[in-house]
Amino acid sequence: MPRASAAAAARTAQQVLDAATDLFAARGFAAVSLDDVARAAGVTRGAVYHHYGNKAGLFRAVAARLQARVADSVVEAAEHAGADPRARLGAGSHAFLDAITSGPAVRVLLVDAPAVLGWREWRELDAENSGTHLRDALRAMGVDDDLLGALTAQLSGAMNDAALWIAEHEDGTRTRQQAHAALDRLLAAVAP
Amino acid sequence: MPRASAAAAARTAQQVLDAATDLFAARGFAAVSLDDVARAAGVTRGAVYHHYGNKAGLFRAVAARLQARVADSVVEAAEHAGADPRARLGAGSHAFLDAITSGPAVRVLLVDAPAVLGWREWRELDAENSGTHLRDALRAMGVDDDLLGALTAQLSGAMNDAALWIAEHEDGTRTRQQAHAALDRLLAAVAP
DNA sequence: CTCCTTACGTACACTGTGCATGTAAGACTC
DNA sequence: GAGTCTTACATGCACAGTGTACGTAAGGAG
Q1: What is the mean pLDDT of residues A55-63?
Q2: What pLDDT is stored for residue B39 in this prediction?
Q3: Architecture of domain A1-53 in CATH?
Q4: Which chain B residues touch A189 with a CB distance below 8 Å?
């Protein structure tokens, strides 16, 4: 008994995506079955497979949306910081930390994504979003082209682990401040 | 038809561990079945379950052994570097990069481990090994206690992503040199 | 109004985990 | 050194979960 208009179909796809985001964030990829997702979204597994192909495809869609949201925050913060490259780098980096630690992004993007999508695809997804901004910011700071790739990867890794470190503790603003302070220390290595 | 002496049992446990290490490194945790492991080790799944409890337990054993090996390299390099805290920090960090990128450790420890064991347990495993050494080295460098936790996590993350970056490229010594150079840049932020 | 396509629902096959049970060979006791 | 216990596996089965083939009804285009 399917009743499908173009709008209704888009809505069910959204509901599935929302439900999957919550469940993946709460329990992790492996502990969530597609039946769980379908039930939470009020449909059957058939609908999930129709819209997302397979379980990895659903996860990919979830991760891509979260990644895009984080990247939006980074861009907005950088815009707001003006034209000075160093100010933009700092603002974007701190915005990244705050954005990725608020909401369900950490577990999905930083714990499960590399294993589910593979490191390579995960890196590409990152490169299409916040990764590019970091790289551009470092280039604008005058980082040698030879070091650019490696330094981008390492600073990105530092921020990711900072986010995980914050999420692990989960006891208010103190650890968050420490993470931001440590990040400033590392950024100073690039721009004194 | 079991024929089990104490020595023979230890040997089969070893064979299973060796086979699992190779397979997990080559295909990833999810794509390896316990039947694959058992067949590669020349036993049945019963033996695997007997020694390691379940699939996660087997993976835990694999990861712990790899982690311990990496930590050994770090310690050895630090010892060899003498008494100067800065020299020990640098030597240990670069040794970490080289050790974790040589052999099957990268995929197991950095891609699958967080998802399979959970971020928390993975962090504890790391803390029991190379993580402690990094923290000690930073403390010896006079890093403020308030920053110690966050900075350790972020530098660790930077090194992990440096390792993944090296493993991703896999084209000889050039990328490796770039990674080491970028790492030096970050270490300079802690110790000028 | 007809036909085609989209959007699901349903049923089934297959893979893989984990556990329960069986069993034979050390190891230990006397 | 015979009996008993425990360890070290092998085997078989139950169950969960994925993916896919098929069925089906409701838009939408002509």
Answers
A1: 95
A2: 92
A3: Orthogonal Bundle (1.10)
A4: 185-186, 188-189
